[in-house]
Write a structure and sequence with these properties.
Layout lengths: L5 H4 L13 H20 L4 H12 L8 E2 L3 E3 L5 E3 L4 E2 L3 E4 L4 E3 L4 E2 L4 E3 L1 E2 L4 H5 L4 E2 L2 E3 L4 E2 L4 E2 L4 E2 L4 E2 L4 E2 L7 E5 L2 E6 L1
C-alpha cells in the first residue's frame, strides 16, 4: 500500500514528519520560500515589485489592493490565499502547513500569528518534530487585532472582530467580537 505524501497529509489533521514521503520536496519549497522572504523583508522596492515578489511566494496572483507589510513570515507560501483589499501589518506569521484562506477586505494587525500546524501531546513524538495541520479560514471584512493568535482548524466568520492579544482556538461566528485567551464571543455586531 502506498504511503501518503506530506503534501497529501497537510490539512487533514493526520500526522507527518521526518520519513514521510515528500519531505525532501517540502524542505525544498520551504527553502525557496525562505530565500524569497529574505528579499521581501530586506530589499527596498516599489509596491508593485513587492506585490510581484509576494505572488512568487504564494504562487498566486495578488490583487493590487492587497498589501502585506514586511517583515512577513510563512512556511511555504503556496498554501496562502489572499483576497482583495487585505492589509497584513508588520511582523505577521502565517504558518501555512495547511491552507490559510483570507477573504476580502480583511485587516490583520501587527504581530498576528495564524498557525495551521500543531504537534502531538506525546513528548517522544515531538522529539521527531511530528506535525499535523488543519486549514484556517478568515471570512470577508474581518478585523484581527494586534498580537492575536489564530490556531489550526479555526474559521473566523464574515465581519467578525478578534480582540488584540486574543488566542482563537475555536470558530468565531459572523458578526461577532471575540476576545480573550482562549477567545470567546463577547458581543454580537
Amino acid at each position: 500500500m502506498r504511503r501518503k505524501t506530506v503534501f497529501e497529509l497537510m490539512g487533514t489533521g493526520e500526522e507527518w514528519g521526518p520519513g514521510t514521503p515528500g519531505m525532501d520536496e517540502f524542505e525544498r519549497v520551504n527553502r525557496e520560500c525562505s530565500e524569497l522572504l529574505m528579499r521581501y523583508n530586506t530589499v527596498p522596492m516599489p509596491p508593485e515589485d513587492r506585490r510581484d515578489l509576494l505572488a512568487q511566494i504564494t504562487k498566486k496572483p495578488v490583487d493590487p489592493s492587497t498589501k502585506v507589510v514586511p517583515p512577513f513570515f510563512c512556511d511555504l507560501g503556496t498554501n496562502i490565499i489572499l483576497g482583495r483589499g487585505v492589509l497584513v501589518n508588520y511582523n505577521c506569521v502565517l504558518l501555512d502547513c495547511a491552507e490559510i484562506r483570507i477573504g476580502d477586505h480583511v485587516l490583520i494587525g501587527p504581530n498576528v500569528n495564524i498557525v495551521t500546524a500543531d504537534h502531538p501531546l506525546d513528548h517522544v513524538k515531538r522529539r521527531d518534530w511530528v506535525t499535523s495541520s488543519l486549514p484556517v479560514t478568515i471570512g470577508d471584512d474581518v478585523w484581527i487585532g494586534a498580537g492575536a493568535v489564530i490556531k489550526s482548524g479555526v474559521t473566523v466568520g464574515d465581519r467578525a472582530v478578534i480582540g488584540a492579544g486574543s488566542v482563537v482556538v475555536k470558530d468565531v461566528c459572523p458578526d461577532a467580537v471575540a476576545a480573550g485567551s482562549p477567545a470567546n464571543v463577547i458581543r454580537k455586531l
